[in-house]
Write a structure and sequence with these properties.
The chain is mainly β. Helix content is 3%, strand content 51%.
C-alpha cells in the first residue's frame, strides 16, 4: 500500500510557481578525458572522492555500475546490482553512506514500476555484486499510462538532500521541470509535486551541494532541433533549504552539440558533464565554468 508522503510546512510553502531566469550566458567546453569504453551510453555519473567516480549506462544495458578514475589509463571496475533489471536507469546521487540509482526513465509515460535502488557505499567498494534496497514510487497527478511523447512524468535527474530524494522531471509536454520529493527509506510512496520551473528544454541530470554558507543546484539538459542536441545548464543559488527555485537562476548555453546526460560539481566554480556516445561524438567528460 502506498504510503502518503507528508512534508514539513516549509515544503508546502514552495508549491507550484514558475520563477523566471535571472541571467543567461554562453560557455565553451573544456575536454577532460574520454569515458571508459564500457560507458557508451553514460546517463548518470557521480564523484565519490577527489579521484574516484561511479557511472551507469542507460536503459536496456546490464544492471552494472562502473567505478573508475579520470586518468588516461583508468581501470574500470564493474559492480553488478543483483536481482534487478536496468529498465531505464537514468541518474545517480549519493549521501554519506549510500548511492541511489534512479530507474526512473519513463519515455512513453507508461511505466508503473518506477524505482530507486539504494546501495551501501561500503558494500559497493568491497564487493563485485551487491543487493540493493528498493524505493518504489508513483507520481501525484498521473492517472493515465497510455503511450505518449507529450507527457510530464519522465525523470532523469535526482538529488539527495537530508532525509529525502528530489526528482526533477523531463517534461516533453511543456518543457518545464517539476520537482517531486520522496523519502530515502525503502518502501512505496506517492511522490508529491513541490514546485515547477520553466526550464525551456528537457532536463537530463542534476547535482546539489551545500556547506555552512551556501547551497547550490545545477540542472543539465538539452533542446532537440531535428536530430541535433543543444545542451544547457541551469545554476540555482541563494535559495533556502529545499526551495531550489526560490533564489537566483542562471542559464548557461553550451556552444557544442551533445546529448548531455549527467552533471556534477567539481571545484568552486565549475562542473563536469558527460554525454552519450553516438555516431558523431564519442563519450567524454567535459568541464564547464559557472
Amino acid at each position: 500500500m502506498l504510503q502518503l508522503l507528508f512534508f514539513t510546512s516549509a515544503f508546502w510553502m514552495i508549491l507550484s510557481c514558475h520563477p523566471p531566469l535571472d541571467k543567461e550566458h554562453t560557455h565553451d567546453l573544456l575536454e577532460v578525458i574520454a569515458l571508459p569504453k564500457e560507458l557508451n551510453e553514460c546517463s548518470g555519473m557521480i564523484q565519490l572522492d577527489k579521484n574516484s567516480f561511479v557511472a551507469l549506462n542507460d536503459g536496456g544495458n546490464k544492471p552494472i555500475l562502473y567505478a573508475f578514475d579520470l586518468t588516461p589509463d583508468h581501470e574500470t571496475r564493474k559492480i553488478k546490482i543483483d536481482s534487478v533489471e536496468n529498465n531505464d536507469w537514468e541518474d545517480l546521487t549519493k549521501d554519506e553512506d549510500y548511492i541511489y540509482i534512479g530507474d526512473t526513465g519513463n519515455n512513453g509515460g507508461t511505466r508503473q514500476n518506477l524505482m530507486i535502488y539504494k546501495v551501501r557505499k561500503s558494500d559497493m567498494m568491497r564487493q563485485d555484486e551487491v543487493v540493493p534496497e528498493k524505493i518504489k514510487f508513483r507520481y501525484e497527478g498521473q492517472t493515465k499510462f497510455n503511450d505518449s511523447n507529450r507527457h510530464n512524468f519522465d525523470c532523469e535527474a535526482i538529488v539527495s538532500v537530508g532525509d529525502s530524494l528530489f526528482l526533477f522531471t523531463k517534461n516533453r509536454g511543456d518543457l518545464m521541470t517539476d520537482v517531486y520529493g520522496i523519502p530515502k527509506i525503502p518502501g512505496s510512496y506517492l511522490a508529491r509535486k513541490l514546485k515547477s520551473f520553466d526550464a525551456q528544454g528537457l532536463i537530463t541530470g542534476a547535482d546539489y551541494r551545500s556547506d555552512h554558507s551556501k547551497s547550490e543546484l545545477v540542472l543539465i539538459g538539452y533542446n532537440e532541433k531535428g536530430h541535433q542536441y543543444h545542451p544547457f545548464l541551469i545554476h540555482f543559488t541563494n535559495f533556502s533549504g529545499t526551495d531550489f527555485f526560490g533564489g537566483l537562476s542562471e542559464r548557461i548555453t553550451i556552444d557544442q552539440q551533445l546529448q548531455s546526460e549527467s552533471v556534477f560539481f567539481n571545484g568552486d566554480h565549475k562542473v563536469y558533464i558527460s554525454n552519450e556516445e553516438n555516431k558523431n561524438e564519442k563519450g567524454y567528460v567535459y568541464e564547464v565554468s559557472l
